[in-house]
């Protein structure tokens, strides 16, 4: 089944599941527990498909563990000209392009190169190929359960899901507090997991306030300044002093499993992917 671009569907889903955000006074950092940050330059790279060795894309967990039966978010990098053989996966995954040009579709489909900010889903069991054509190619890949496995096409099956290819030019951006939001998947009712892109304007300074029990954010574009006295680094060590400013490049991650406030700065327009099960408020300090 070929993938389809779904800009209209994205807008409809947004209207069905979106919630109202509003400005609130700036408050002191209220983080009750440590959040975790992982800088893109400090991730531990391995292979997405270890059986193929250096012919496989590189992979690095940001959260979770792709080898276990658990939800996971990871970075995947491809060399220019990468072209996979037809294959399937045992589980459904989501992909967001951070850098480069990616194609993911049926083996016979015409190439549709997806640039930075594009989003796609790959249903479990569906035969497909993946290709990359940028000088460097990096994506964020997310699964709701694992392990993440690659299997031959002769084991293909229909799990009832339909694939999506959403080119960055067809994202539907809606006003969202002090920024903009493009809904991607899920249900935004409190307690339900969902995923969105959040766009911070150039010169943004303010707070992202989360009431979630699961909050995970990945920098897709731009450069994010994160200020939080409760942050820990990738080794779970406390950041050296209160109000430490951490500069996060595309591919970096921060998140927590309790409600938290994040003080954010962006000199240039910055896009975050956020997976959460709670409501968010995005306020400026101006």
Short structural summary:
It comes from Thalassotalea euphylliae. Helix content is 4%, strand content 42%. The chain is mainly beta and 286 residues long.
Mean pLDDT: 86
Tell me the structural class: mainly beta
CA-to-CA gap between the ends?
49 Å
Query: Treating each run of at least 4 consecutive H or I residues as one helix, how many helices?
Result: 1
Number of domains: 2
The share of residues in helices is under 10%
Specify Rg, calculated over alpha carbons. Answer: 18 Å
CATH architectural arrangement of the largest domain: Sandwich
- Main sheet overview: 8 strands, mixed
Number of separate strands? 24
Strand percentage, roughly?
35-45%
What is the fourth-level CATH superfamily of the largest domain? Jelly Rolls
| Uncertain spans | 1-33
- Described by the principal axes of the CA atoms, the overall outline is globular
Q: What is the ordering of alpha helices and beta strands?
A: HEEEEEEEEEEEEEEEEEEEEEEEE
- CATH fold title of the largest domain: Jelly Rolls
What's the CATH C level of the largest domain?
A: Mainly Beta
Taking strands numbered 1, 2, ... along the chain, how are they ordered across the largest sheet? 13-14-15-23-17-21-1-19
């Amino acid at each position: 089944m070929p993938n389809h671009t779904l800009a209209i569907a994205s807008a409809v889903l947004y209207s069905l599941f979106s919630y109202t955000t509003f400005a609130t006074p700036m408050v002191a950092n209220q983080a009750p527990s440590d959040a975790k940050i992982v800088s893109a330059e400090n991730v531990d790279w391995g292979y997405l498909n270890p059986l193929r060795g250096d012919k496989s894309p590189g992979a690095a967990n940001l959260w979770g563990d792709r080898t276990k039966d658990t939800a996971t978010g990871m970075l995947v990098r491809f060399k220019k000209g990468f072209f996979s053989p037809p294959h399937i996966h045992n589980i459904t995954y989501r992909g967001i392009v951070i850098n480069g040009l990616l194609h993911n579709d049926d083996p016979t489909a015409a190439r549709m190169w997806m640039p930075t900010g594009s989003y796609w889903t790959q249903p479990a069991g569906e035969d497909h190929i993946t290709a990359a054509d940028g000088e460097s190619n990096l994506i964020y890949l997310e699964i709701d359960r694992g392990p993440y496995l690659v299997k031959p096409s002769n084991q293909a099956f229909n799990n009832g899901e339909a694939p999506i290819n959403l080119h960055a030019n067809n994202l539907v951006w809606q006003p969202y507090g002090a920024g903009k939001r493009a809904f991607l998947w899920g249900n935004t009712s409190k307690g339900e997991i969902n995923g969105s892109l959040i766009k911070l304007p150039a010169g943004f300074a303010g707070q992202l306030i989360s009431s979630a029990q699961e909050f995970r954010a990945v920098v897709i574009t731009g450069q994010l300044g994160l200020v939080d006295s409760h942050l820990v680094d990738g080794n779970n060590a406390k950041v050296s002093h209160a109000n430490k400013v951490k500069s996060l490049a595309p591919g970096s991650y921060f998140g927590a499993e309790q409600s938290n406030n994040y003080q954010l700065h962006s000199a240039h327009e910055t896009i975050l992917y956020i997976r959460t099960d709670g409501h968010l408020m995005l306020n400026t300090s101006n």
